[in-house]
Amino acid sequence: MAATYLPTLKQLQYLVALQDSGHFGRAADACFVTQSTLSAGIRELETLIGVVLVERTRRVVRFTPLGDRIAEKARRILREAEELGDMARAAGRPLSGDMRMSVIPTIAPFMLPRILPRLRRDYPELRLFLREEASGPACEGLNHGRTDCVLLALPYACGEVTSQVLFEDRLFLAGPEAEIGASGVSVGAEAIDETRLLLLEDGHCLKDHALAACNRPELRAEATMLGTSLHTIVQMVDNGLGVTMLPEMALNAGILDHTHLVARPLSAANPSRKIALVWRRASPREKDFQLLADALTQAH
């Protein structure tokens, strides 16, 4: 019987890294090897399977159509190989070993400082690697196996995932007291001046949650969407440029401290977002993620 030569996981890792970066040097850096090593590994893979996967020029790296398909298959193989280790960890001590979690920017600075000390205390064998990124890239990373779980706000379409809601995070209107009234008194969505509303730029799901809560289609057309972070928007509002919507967790974390702004709870049909932990469906570490979700809820 003729010997069968199979691609190695290392070769598949090189191929996926090259597709992600589009550059041999950056792909080599991501794999912690030299550029010549990575290039040789991909050439060996092409020789092994007898097809060209990558067209190489001086200025651009272009995958062939078959190269794209094989790279996507390689992602699934690498993810399943990682899950072999996950299965072993899941059979050992709960919440131990490495775990990669993405957190969206409208949650990370307000929730992580509270929950991380408790996680370190209760699960000292857990090595939690954190990545802050918007919901779209975070869910893409989860489905491609770059991330194990994501802390994000629902509703959001994140693919074939399992989710566990941690808590409700209410939305507030924030601005000068002279413009939005006394603190603590709710404000109806119909009272918001759409020409004064400042929101996060596209790519942040909080913008969509805020607009959906108001149920006013004209707000999407008229609101100014330019903030890259909630802290930046608060500074603009404090300088008289308008009003904005903030989640309760940001207010509890003191985002309005040292400003002249007040916040009023939003009165609307759905005046909140759901904070949830999501992970790939049928993951062998599902019990770990459920345990982590419970710990995050308690820490909140």
From TrEMBL:
Similarity-based family: Belongs to the LysR transcriptional regulatory family.
Pfam family, one: LysR_substrate
Higher taxonomy: Bacteria, Pseudomonadati, Pseudomonadota, Alphaproteobacteria, Sphingomonadales
Protein name: LysR family transcriptional regulator
Signal sequence range: none
CDD domains tied to this protein: PBP2_OxyR
UniProt keywords, alphabetically: DNA-binding, Transcription, Transcription regulation
One MF term in the entry's GO annotations: DNA binding
Xref: InterPro entries: LysR_HTH_N, LysR_subst-bd, WH-like_DNA-bd_sf, WH_DNA-bd_sf
GO cellular component: protein-DNA complex
Record has Transcription as a keyword: yes
Domain HTH lysR-type as annotated: residue spans: 7-64
Gene3D superfamilies xrefs: Periplasmic binding protein-like II (3.40.190.10), Winged helix-like DNA-binding domain superfamily/Winged helix DNA-binding domain (1.10.10.10)
PROSITE patterns found in the cross-reference section: HTH_LYSR (PS50931)
